[in-house]
C-alpha cells in the first residue's frame, strides 16, 4: 500500500519544525515516557491509525513497555497491568480523543480530577499535548493513507 501523497509536514517544511518543537516540549514535561507512549497508542487505536499504532508499539517497547501490557492497552479498564496513574492518563487520552462522542464537557470533571490527582501541571501539559499531537498525526496519516512502518523523517 502506498500513501496518497507525500506527508504534508514534509511538503511544508515549516510545519515539521513546529511539530518537532512541540514534541520536544512534550518530552520536557517530566511525564513518564511510558505514560506518554501509552496515551499515544490508545489514541491511535481509537482513531484507527495503523501507522501510529505500529510506530507507537515500537516506540513503547524502546521505552521499556512489555508485550503483555501493550496487548492490553485497548482493554486497559479490564486489564490488571496498569497503575492508577496510567489509568487516569488513559482515561484522559480517551476523553480528549473522543470529544465528539460526548454531550456536555468533552473531558468530564471526574476524569480531569483523577488525572490531576496523579500529575502536576507540567506533566498534565505534556500528556495533553501528546494526546493532541497524536490526534493530529492520526488525522494526517489516515487522510493520506500512510502505511504502517513508514516514518515522517
Descriptive account of the structure:
Helix content is 64%, strand content 0%. It has helices at residues 8-11, 13-26, 33-47, 50-62, 67-70, 84-97, 109-118, 121-144. It is globular and about 40 Å long. The protein is mostly helical and 153 residues long. Helix 3 runs parallel beside helix 6.
Helix content: 55-70%
The number of distinct β-strands equals 0
Q: Determine the mean pLDDT.
A: 95
Distance between the termini: 19 Å
Q: List the total number of helices.
A: 8
Radius of gyration, taken over Cα atoms and rounded to an integer in Å: 15 Å
Main β-sheet description = none
Low-confidence stretches: none
Order of helical and strand elements:
HHHHHHHH
Anisotropy-based shape: globular
